[in-house]
């Protein structure tokens, strides 16, 4: 039987100090004998698309336990491009992708995890986590959230793009402050990635079409209670993880370039694949 990567920190006399640190956090001997699966969650209270990822993360952890693994939650940062836009904050958005990739790789390799479940949803977070997974060639599953529901203004469905149009209309004195405020408070009715094929949804679409990365069902919206059900029911992927049938390598990812190119914005797809190839050089 293949030895687990996590045996480097959980097995043998020399690893007794490491085990004692696990016990300090409440882990049991039985849990340490199972595969250690990092659940990388981008949950935060500053990004609408990540606001309820804590619920999806808990469902993922339950699924890992049901499948015989030990889930270990690891946090990840994330920038909301919509909030960062229009000031110095936007200079940090693209750079955050590299920080996310580096931090996920750091946490995974430093603690010898056996596999990953990535729980992103927005913009640079999805590609950042995927880049980390393919660098390390360990089994990985992407379980993203879903898109924001449309808002309703004057009985018309609206999304964030309509909000930008409303700003232009106000500057042109086509609407007043009251109408602008109505758009502000009704355009984004709840959590989820911004409605529309912006970076977040195009990246989620990219991953869902790439066989090199196992992907749980991509939810249409991010506000429904039933969403947690397919998360933990989708653990037939676990069979692939435990036998390493799912291989996340730069080569495997780049082999899917025609698929990626079709479903993602070409500059973004090119950038991801170029970074993976240069990482191998």
Task: Set down the secondary structure blueprint.
Elements: H1 7-10, H2 16-24, H3 29-32, E1 36-41, H4 53-66, E2 70-75, H5 81-84, H6 93-110, E3 115-119, H7 125-136, E4 140-142, E5 146-147, E6 151-153, E7 156-158, H8 160-171, H9 177-186, H10 199-208, E8 214-215, E9 219-221, H11 228-233, H12 237-243, H13 250-255, H14 257-263, H15 266-280
Parallel strand pairs: 1-2, 1-3, 3-4, 4-8, 5-9
Antiparallel strand pairs: 6-7
Helix pairs in contact: 6-7, 7-10, 7-15, 8-9, 14-15
Describe it for me?
- This protein is an alpha/beta fold and 281 residues long.
- It has helices at residues 7-10, 16-24, 29-32, 53-66, 81-84, 93-110, 125-136, 160-171, 177-186, 199-208, 228-233, 237-243, 250-255, 257-263, 266-280, and strands spanning 36-41, 70-75, 115-119, 140-142, 146-147, 151-153, 156-158, 214-215, 219-221.
- The strands form three sheets. A five-stranded parallel β-sheet has the order 2-1-3-4-8, with helices on both faces. Strands 5-9 form a two-stranded parallel ribbon. A two-stranded antiparallel ribbon has the order 6-7.
- The protein is elongated.
- The two termini are 33 Å apart.
- The relative contact order is 0.14.
């Amino acid at each position: 039987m293949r030895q687990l990567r996590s045996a480097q920190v959980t097995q043998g006399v020399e690893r007794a100090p490491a085990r004692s640190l696990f016990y300090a956090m409440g882990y049991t001997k039985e849990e340490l004998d199972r595969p250690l699966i990092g659940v990388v969650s981008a949950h935060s209270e500053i990004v609408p698309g990540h606001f309820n990822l804590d619920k999806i993360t808990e469902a993922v952890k339950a699924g890992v336990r049901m499948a015989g693994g030990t889930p270990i939650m690891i946090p990840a940062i994330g920038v909301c491009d919509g909030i960062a836009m229009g000031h110095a904050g936007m200079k940090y958005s693209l750079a955050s992708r590299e920080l996310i990739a580096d931090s996920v790789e750091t946490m995974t390799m430093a603690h010898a995890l056996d596999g990953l479940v990535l729980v992103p949803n927005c913009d640079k977070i999805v590609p950042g986590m995927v880049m980390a997974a393919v660098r390390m060639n360990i089994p990985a599953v992407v379980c993203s959230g879903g898109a924001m529901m449309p808002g309703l203004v004057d009985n018309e469905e609206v999304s964030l793009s309509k909000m930008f149009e409303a700003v232009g209309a106000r500057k042109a004195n086509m609407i007043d402050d009251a109408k602008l405020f109505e758009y502000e408070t009704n355009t984004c009715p709840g959590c989820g990635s911004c409605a529309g094929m912006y970076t977040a949804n195009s990246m989620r679409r990219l991953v869902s079409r790439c066989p090199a990365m196992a992907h749980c069902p991509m939810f249409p919206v991010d506000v429904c209670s039933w969403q947690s059900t397919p998360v933990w029911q989708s653990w037939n992927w676990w069979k692939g993880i435990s036998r390493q049938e799912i291989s996340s390598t730069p080569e495997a990812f780049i082999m899917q370039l025609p698929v990626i190119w079709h479903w993602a914005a070409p500059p973004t797809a090119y950038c991801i694949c170029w970074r993976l190839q240069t990482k191998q050089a």
